[in-house]
Amino acid sequence: MKLFRGHNAELVNHLFQTLLVTYLILLLFEQLWEGIVSVYLNLNYLLILVIVAGILDVFSETPLKPRERVKNLDYWFVVVLGILGFVIIKFKTGDLGWLSWVISLIAGALIVLLSFLVLEERDG
Amino acid sequence: MVIEREKDWDEKFEVWKKQHKRGSWKSRPVGDRKEIMKASEGIVAEIEEKAEKTVEEVEKEIEEVEERIKEYVKNKPLYVRVLRVLAVLIPVLLILYLISANFLVAQNFEYRYDIGSVGENVLTPVERISQSEVMGDVTYRNLTGHLVYFDVPIARGAEKVLVEARIGDDFPSDGKASLGARNAEEWNYLYKRLYNPLLNVGGYQAKGDVYRLNENLPLVDEAGLVNLGGITIAAEEFEPVVNSVNDYTQEDTVIDLHLRGKHTFYVYAADYLEVYVEKEDINWYEGSDELVVVLYDMDGSVIELTQLRDDGIVDSSKRMETTQSGMLRASGLAPGVYKLEFNDFDGLISKIRINSNKVVADKVFLADNKIYGVDTKQSRLYFDYDKDVTLKLMTYHSAGLQKILFNRDGEVEPFNFNIEDEPMYREVGAGKYMVTFPNNDIIIESPEYLAFTPNGYFRPFKQKVVPINSPEWIMDSVDYLITDYVAPKREGDWIVVQTEFDIKEDGLFVNDQGVLSFVFNVPHLAEEGSNYTIPIDWIDVKVYKPGVWG
C-alpha cells in the first residue's frame, strides 16, 4: 500500500528528513546546554511530528534519486563529524576523568570508521 | 580375486592417461592442430566482442536511466519546489526563534502553582505539608513544618525572580515568614522577608527600598541618604558616612568611673592614639578574668590590641586585691572615627584615659556602687540631641534604684527610677543634657550616643545605623527604614506576600538542569509544641530574562 507516489512521495521523504534532523540537532543542543530549547519549545511536540512524517514516509513510494559519486569532501566531512562527536562526548562525560578520554576517543573513532565503511560501500 | 581385478583397472587407467595426456594433441598432425587453433581464436574473439557489446549496452542503458532521473528531478512541478523550501524553513525559523528567545529579546516567564489542586506536588517534603483542604471555593494545603522547599525552572540568562504567595494570616503576634533562595551548591539559602507584622511599612512613603518614617524629612532613595546628616536609619546593610569633627583636639578624656561588662566606645582620632586602662577583677564567678582591648578602624579591621591579665584569683571569693593597668598605642592613624572595644569579663574597668576629647558610647553600665565592692559615688553622662530620643534604663539590684537627674540646659528634672529587673524608658527631647546618677548600678542605652565629659559628645557618623529588628524604643527614633520587604496585600482572610531576588547580585545557584531551589522558612512552626500551621493557596513565580534589545 503506497499512500504517496512520485513527487508527493519525495516531498514526504524530504519533510521527514528535515524534521528528523531538526529534532536531533535541537535535542543535541538541549543535551549540551540544558534549558536552551526546552524552556521555549516542547521537543515532544516536534517528536510527534517526526513520528507522523516517518510513518507517512514508510507508506510512500521510494523516491527516485540520481546516483551520486563519493567525493573527498565526504570523507573530510566524516572526519569533522568524528571530531565533533569526540568533543561533545568529552564535554558530557568530563566528570569521569581518564575514562572520559577513553570513551570519547573510541566514540569518535567509531563515528569515523563506520561512516567510512558506509561511504566505501556506496562507492563500490 | 578382488586385488587382481583392481590391479587390472589401474593398468588400464594408466594406459588411457598416457594416450590422452601426452600423446593425443602431439600425436595429431600439425595441419589439424593449426586448423583447430584458428577456429578456437575466432570463437573466443566472437565471444569477447559480444560481451563488450553487452557491457556497453548496459552502461548506455544505465546512463539513459540516470539522465531520465535527472530530468525528472530537474523538472519538478512548482508546488513541489515551494513545499520543499517551506520544509527547509521549518528548522531555520525554529533556530532563529530560539536564538532570539535565548539571547535577543527580553522574556517574562510565569509559573503558577495551585498548591491545593489535585496532583500539585511542588512542595516538599510531604511530611511538612497537609493534605489538600477546602475553604469556601479555595483549595489549599497547610505548611506544618518550618522548612518547605519548591523548585522553579530558570531560563538561561534570567536576572530577576519575583515570588508571590497567597497565604493565610494565621501567624502569632511575633510570627514571621521568609523565603530562601539557594545560593550555593551545598545547602545554603539567602533569605528575604515574606511576612513580618512588626515591619508595618504599609502607611509610609517609599523611594526604592527606603521608607520615610519621619515625615519632616525629605523622601530620598538610598543614594540620597548619604547626603543627609543627623538621621537614624534602620537597615541590614548601610555604610554610614563619618562625620567631620571641627573641635577635635588630642586633649585627654578621663573616664574616672567604674564600668561593668562589655563596652564599645567610638573615638575620634588623628595620627596617634593612646589608651590607658585600669581594671579590677571582682571575682564573683570562677575562672580567670582577662580584659582584651581592641582598636578597630571603621572597616572592621583590627589596628591594635592589648590584654590585661587575670589578677591571679580564679575562684568566686569576691576578693578584690589588685588594680591592673595596661596601655594601647596606635600611630599613623588617618583622621576619623575608630571603634574601641572592651570585652566582657568578671570585673570592673576602673579608669580609662584616652588622648582624644571626643569619646562616646551607646551603652554604658555604671558600676560605682558598693554592691561591686567600690564606693558609691555619683556619675555623670552628657549628650546633645537634635531630636526626641528614648533612653532605656535597667538595673538588676535594688541598690540601683535611684532618682536620676536630667539637666537640660540648666533645667533639672528628676526621674524616679524605681523598677528592678525590668527596663524603664525615659523620653528626652532635643537639647544639651547632663544626667546625674547618684547610685549607679545601672545600664543606660541610647539610640544615639552618650559622652563622659561636657564637651566629649559627638556624632561619629552622619547617619546612625541600627538593626532592622531593633526593639520598639529604638525604632521610635528611626527616621528611615531600608528594606526590600513589601507590605502584604490583604484579600479577606488571606494575604498575598512577595519578595524578589536578583540571580546575579544575590549570587543564586541555578543547577545544571536550570532549576533554582526555594524554601519557605516559618520559624514558629519549628517550635516545640507548636500547633500553628500556615495555609498556602498558590505560589506565583515570575522570572524576568533581559535581552539584547531590552
- Put simply, the count of helices of chain B is 5
CATH class of the domain at 108-199 and 485-545 in chain B: Mainly Beta
Largest interface: A-B, 24 and 28 residues
State the helicity of chain A in percent bands.
over 70%
Domain module tally of chain A: 2
Find the CATH topology of the domain at 108-199 and 485-545 in chain B. Jelly Rolls
Report on the biggest sheet of chain A: none
Query: Biggest β-sheet of chain B: count, sense, barrel?
Result: 11 strands, antiparallel
- Please count the beta strands of chain A (DSSP E, at least 2 residues each): 0
- Rounded to the nearest angstrom, the distance between the terminal CA atoms of chain B is 115 Å
Fourth-level CATH superfamily of the domain at 108-199 and 485-545 in chain B: Galactose-binding domain-like
Order of helices and strands of chain A: HHHH
Judging from the principal axes of the Cα atoms, what is the shape of chain B? elongated
Low-pLDDT sequence parts of chain A: none
Care to describe what's here?
The complex is a heterodimer of chains A (124) and B (550). Chain A has 4 helices and no strands. Chain A is mainly α. Chain A is flat and about 50 Å long. Chain A starts with 5 loop residues before the first helix and ends with a helix. In chain B, strands 11, 12, 13, 14, 15, 16, 17, 18, 20, 23 and 25 form an 11-stranded antiparallel sheet that branches. In chain B, strands 1, 2, 3, 5, 28, 29 and 31 form a 7-stranded antiparallel sheet that branches. Chain A binds chain B through residues 7, 10-11, 14-15, 18-19, 21-22, 25-26, 29, 33-37, 39-41, 64-67, and chain B through 66, 69-70, 72-73, 76-77, 80, 83-84, 87-88, 90-91, 94-95, 97-98, 101-102, 109, 153-156, 512-514.
